[in-house]
């Protein structure tokens, strides 16, 4: 049986990937092979797994554009000047002016630097306080619970749940609604987990 | 713990799935430091280039302030510039290229990489080129939001289409730029466009400044606006000609609230008064203008001496001493006594002097008549002219207002005529100047590559034969493009690439363009934020904010560097996007684009560049530096202020001829009688590389007045139905269609106002803060009433607007409060450049029930502008 460290790392990596990029056909193939937990206690996780697995099950390659459009609408506010989106940037949630690139970005970047890391050049340029980067960093810190706890408290706890609520509110697909619920449930568990340490 | 694992144990997700890792080892062991680095850059929130100190912490812009080294803005910034941080880090920016998913206008997009997006566009371009010809591509730009105007013209010339346009051009600046360029060969007097540089000189002896249709305190507060304040504090008299009581009008010695669209009639009364009262500079007019030259009344051409090959020596005057027509050598000595006015018969043919014809043109415009036509007080009018004429040196700064109706070029000609009559040219204290340039640039930062457009393609330019003044900017005519899209004649444009803000808010009659859009096969929109126009696009490309871009800027005697202070997402500088697109087309076999990368073909027009540094290095090499080296030193003076502000260029002795250099015109004189408009209209000379077919009629070498097509004086059906004359004009919070998405600015200016005089307000039962409908024969829209004596009773004012908050509704944000639903995209057009009517249309105003649905009207509404923060409603679950 998988240990708790690996399980958490797995889920952080999975969520990081889902928020980072749209689902392409090879990812869809992978997703269809995935098995999500059943008979789960946490309500958000239970609903989330249900929504996501059903969405994945029925998703065909032809519908990937629709899913990509929901990604663009929900996370990029594509083509919209309205604030009605779930911006995956910590700064937007924690900064006074709700802009990107504020103090949260700087402080996240510093945290990575202290661990000898910096953001790689990616297919799509994102700031350091993007949810995918923060989740990936949590995965990277696996095994170093004190560091994980610090980063979770300083960077994730303050905004990620609100972000998830915005995803649920903004997205039009069960895929992303489900993903948001999974994230939210996982974060609740993490919060308790870190509290008990 | 087992329970935890059970809940989160997802299976089957490959940990090595990701092709690229998110993190890499940090190359240096240095952590980001907390020091603030100051980057000396230059703003581009409007067309000015005010010097800015960008405070950057950890690669992030935290504060902006003006750079005191800037000789124009001197450390000041305006609301638009200070909104730079909000604009840069706005979460709703265009971040990555997007491609439409589902039907056009449906608001669904998917993200693409730049390579995917450029391939998509280039494939369509090359296919369209092969199937329908290069001319079926139209491109457009516009003044709002950090554009690089020449990039688009260059790409079009290289691709082979003659059809780029902008909503400005014939409606903004070209008329002045062209008229002053042709009559004088030097700078026009637009303060907002960075001219009238004399006003920035602390020791200028200027005594009077006429602000005609310009409001520097609104259009460019840190530079021109503040300079005018300083001039007034030094005792310089100011006259303000503006339908609105702007801050500059309120502080003026005389405010003339001209009826929109009648400026030429008012200018004619000034010219008439100055001539009649002999207030003009006689010596200057006689020696340095072409007004004494004889004009053939049959051909309207100047009489030329036979067998005289030197152009400037070929003109004829009537010599009063010899009592006959004689040829005069440039400049014109004491050996003749030229007649300034009069009609003469030579070999049975009739001739008049240019001066005589000018007088006949203005003769009917007495003070009384002009006061009546233009809605101004006769005594104020006389006072204004007297102040101007009796306080030389001085100058007339002509703003955008007169560019916005079909009398556009003529207004610029009449304005230039006034300063020329007064001798306000190249003397200390005058606005018409040819101050030195750095020599750093050949002409423009981005060479326009005119030679790449073949004669055959040039002849296909839509509106290009009729409106040959557009050749001056190598542009096409917007309404001719619109007509071609709708009728397929003379051919059908199929693909549209736009790089600007919101075409639906700045083009006249966007309701017509909306129909045209549905006729087009493919639309690309490049901008920093989504606008109404994006809603109709097939591809959206994200461009850089000014804080992300670089540019070489000349400001008075200084060179500034706009330099990148930050970079968010995958935005790219427009100047580079066009180059990337050309490269993609080249890869797909487009031969002309292939050639654009060949240094031998491009020569001084430069082959296309792969980086901006490559382009800038070419220019800074002229001052012996790389762009990188220059950026470290900028801002820097390229010469002393004294060397830069050179007066009396026309008196400098030309080494070759031993004579004064004169002006940069065919006669080397100031051509008040603008004969060269005739060959321009007939063949395109001197701006066309080939002979073009003639326009439907000759262009008139002298300004003329046309009563606006819709006019309260016409007493026709339209005048009876729509009693108010509507104009528009700047407010200090926005530039064109920009920044309507910035909460801080929208709080200050949430909705467009409609200004009405108390008499009109009473008549129509309207009070301040009432919502009103404003309706013209073409459409209706809403605004909030502001009742004020700062406007004539028969006039109303409303500025352009759009509402990003309703972008996803059916209106796409441009149908609610948009003055351009009322303006007039069809004729009559200006004969020379094709200007349509944005100002000086007729409207009626009546009460509305309330504001349009969904638009935000109160400061607190703009909270919802910001990304919505969900409440943290997490129930604590075990």
Brief digest:
The complex is a heterodimer of chains A (197) and B (878). Chain A has 197 residues and is an all-alpha fold. In chain A, 64% of the residues lie in helices and 2% in strands.
Strand order of the largest sheet of chain B: 6-5-20-19-18-7-8
Number of strands of chain A: 1
Interface with most residues: A-B, 91 and 80 residues
Morphology of chain A: globular
The DSSP helix count of chain B reads 29
The mean pLDDT of chain A is 94
- Low-pLDDT stretches of chain B: 872-878
Encode the helix/strand succession of chain A as letters: HHHHHHEHHHH
Q: Radius of gyration of chain A in whole Å, from Cα?
A: 16 Å
Approximate strand percentage of chain A? under 5%
Which class of secondary structure composition applies to the elements of chain A?
mainly alpha
- The gyration radius over C-alpha positions of chain B equals 28 Å
Helix segment tally of chain A: 10
β content of chain B, as a range? Answer: 15-25%
Major sheet characteristics of chain A: none
Report the helical percentage of chain A.
55-70%
pLDDT below 50 for ≥5 consecutive residues: which ranges of chain A?
none
For the biggest sheet of chain B, the summary is: 7 strands, mixed
Measured between the Cα atoms of the first and last residue of chain B, the distance is 13 Å
Distance between the termini of chain A: 23 Å
């Amino acid at each position: 049986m998988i240990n708790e460290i690996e399980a958490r790392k797995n889920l952080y990596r999975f969520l990081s990937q889902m928020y980072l990029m749209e689902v392409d056909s090879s990812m869809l193939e992978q997703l269809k092979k995935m098995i999500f937990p059943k008979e789960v206690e946490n309500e958000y996780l239970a609903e989330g797994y249900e929504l996501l697995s059903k969405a994945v099950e029925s998703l065909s390659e032809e519908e990937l554009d629709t899913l990509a459009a929901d990604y663009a609408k929900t996370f990029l506010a594509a083509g919209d000047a309205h604030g009605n989106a779930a911006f995956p940037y910590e700064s937007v949630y924690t900064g006074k002016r709700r802009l990107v690139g504020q103090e949260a970005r700087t402080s996240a970047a510093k945290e990575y630097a202290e661990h000898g890391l910096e953001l790689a050049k990616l297919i799509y340029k994102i700031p350091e306080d993007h949810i995918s980067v923060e989740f990936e960093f949590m995965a990277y810190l696996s095994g170093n619970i004190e560091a994980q706890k610090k980063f979770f408290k300083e960077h994730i706890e303050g905004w990620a749940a609100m972000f998830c609520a915005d995803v649920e509110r903004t997205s039009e697909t069960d895929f992303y609604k489900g993903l948001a619920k999974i994230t939210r449930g996982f974060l609740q568990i993490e919060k308790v987990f870190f509290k008990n340490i | 713990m087992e329970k935890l694992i059970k809940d989160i144990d997802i299976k089957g997700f490959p940990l090595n799935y990701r092709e690229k890792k998110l993190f890499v080892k940090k190359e240096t062991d240095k952590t980001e430091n907390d020091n603030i680095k100051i980057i000396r850059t230059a703003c581009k929130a409007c067309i000015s280039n005010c010097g800015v100190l960008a405070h950057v912490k950890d690669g992030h812009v935290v504060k902006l302030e003006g750079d005191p080294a800037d000789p124009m803005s001197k450390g000041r910034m305006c609301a638009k510039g200070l909104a730079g941080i909000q604009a840069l880090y706005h979460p709703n920016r265009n971040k990555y290229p997007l491609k439409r998913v589902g039907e056009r206008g449906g608001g669904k997009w998917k993200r693409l990489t730049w390579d995917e997006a450029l391939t998509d566009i280039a494939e369509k371009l090359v296919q369209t080129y092969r199937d329908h010809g290069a001319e079926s591509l139209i491109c457009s730009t516009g003044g709002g939001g950090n554009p690089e105007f020449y990039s688009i013209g260059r790409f079009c010339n290289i691709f082979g289409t003659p059809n780029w346009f902008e909503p400005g051009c014939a409606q903004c600046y070209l008329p002045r730029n062209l008229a002053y360029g042709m009559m004088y060969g030097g700078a026009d007097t637009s303060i907002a466009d960075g001219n009238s540089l004399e006003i920035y000189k602390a020791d200028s002896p200027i005594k009077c400044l006429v602000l005609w249709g310009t409001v520097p305190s609104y259009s460019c507060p840190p530079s021109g606006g503040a300079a005018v304040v300083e001039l007034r504090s030094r005792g310089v008299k100011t006259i303000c000609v503006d339908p609105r009581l702007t801050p500059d009008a309120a502080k003026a010695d005389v405010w003339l609230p001209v009826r929109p669209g009648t400026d030429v009639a008012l200018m004619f009364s000034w010219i008439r008064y100055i001539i009649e009262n002999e207030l003009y500079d006689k010596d200057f007019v006689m020696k340095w203008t072409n007004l004494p030259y004889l004009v053939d009344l049959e051909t309207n051409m100047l009489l030329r001496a036979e067998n005289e090959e030197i152009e400037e020596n070929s003109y004829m005057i009537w010599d009063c001493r010899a009592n006959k027509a004689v040829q005069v050598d440039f400049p014109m000595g004491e050996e003749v006594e030229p007649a300034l006015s009069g009609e003469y018969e030579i070999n049975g043919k009739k001739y008049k002097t240019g001066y005589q014809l000018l007088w006949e043109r203005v003769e009917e415009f007495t003070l009384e008549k002009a006061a009546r036509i233009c809605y101004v007080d006769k005594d104020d009018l006389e006072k204004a002219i007297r102040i101007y004429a009796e306080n030389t040196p001085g100058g007339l700064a002509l703003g955008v207002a007169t560019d916005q109706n079909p009398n556009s070029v003529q207004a610029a000609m009449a304005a230039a005529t006034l300063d020329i009559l007064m001798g306000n040219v190249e003397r200390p204290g005058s606005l018409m100047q040819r101050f030195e340039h750095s020599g750093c640039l050949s002409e423009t930062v981005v060479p326009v590559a005119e030679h790449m457009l073949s004669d055959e393609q040039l002849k296909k330019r839509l509106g290009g034969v009729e409106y040959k003044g557009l050749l001056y900017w190598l542009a096409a005519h917007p309404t001719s493009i619109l007509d071609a899209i709708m009728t397929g004649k003379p051919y059908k444009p199929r693909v549209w690439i736009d790089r600007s803000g919101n075409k639906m808010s700045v083009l006249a009659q966007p309701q017509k363009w909306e129909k045209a859009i549905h006729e087009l096969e493919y639309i690309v929109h490049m901008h920093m934020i989504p606008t109404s126009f994006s809603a109709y696009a097939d591809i959206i490309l994200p461009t850089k904010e000014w804080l992300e871009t670089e540019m070489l800027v000349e400001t008075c005697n200084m060179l500034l560097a706009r330099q990148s202070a930050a970079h968010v997402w995958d935005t790219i500088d427009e100047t580079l996007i066009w180059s990337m697109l050309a490269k993609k087309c080249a890869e797909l076999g487009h031969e002309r684009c292939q050639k654009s990368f060949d240094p031998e073909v491009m020569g001084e027009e430069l082959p296309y560049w792969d980086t901006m540094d490559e382009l800038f290095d070419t220019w800074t090499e002229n001052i012996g530096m790389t762009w990188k080296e220059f950026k470290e030193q900028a801002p820097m003076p390229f010469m002393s202020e004294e060397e830069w502000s050179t007066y009396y260029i026309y008196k400098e002795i030309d080494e070759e001829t031993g004579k004064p250099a004169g002006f940069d015109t065919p006669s080397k004189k100031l051509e008040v009688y603008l004969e060269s408009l005739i060959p321009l209209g007939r063949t395109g000379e001197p701006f066309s590389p080939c002979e073009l077919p003639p326009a439907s009629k000759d262009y008139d070498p002298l300004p003329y007045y046309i009563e606006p097509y819709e006019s309260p004086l016409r007493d026709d059906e339209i005048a009876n139905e729509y009693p108010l004359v509507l104009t528009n004009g700047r407010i200090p919070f926005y530039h064109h269609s920009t920044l309507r998405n910035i909460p801080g600015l929208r709080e200050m200016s949430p909705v467009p106002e409609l200004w009405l005089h108390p008499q009109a307000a009473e008549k129509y039962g309207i009070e301040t803060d009432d919502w009103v409908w404003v309706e013209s024969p073409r459409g209706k829209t809403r605004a909030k009433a502001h009742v004020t004596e700062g406007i004539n009773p028969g006039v109303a004012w409303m500025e352009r607007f759009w509402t990003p908050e309703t972008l996803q509704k059916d209106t796409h944000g441009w149908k609610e409060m948009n003055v351009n639903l009322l303006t007039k995209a069809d004729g009559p057009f200006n004969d020379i450049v094709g200007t349509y009517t944005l100002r000086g249309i007729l409207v009626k105003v009546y009460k509305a029930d309330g504001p349009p649905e969904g638009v935000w009207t109160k400061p607190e509404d703009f909270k919802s502008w910001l990304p919505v923060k969900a409440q943290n409603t997490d129930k604590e679950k075990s």
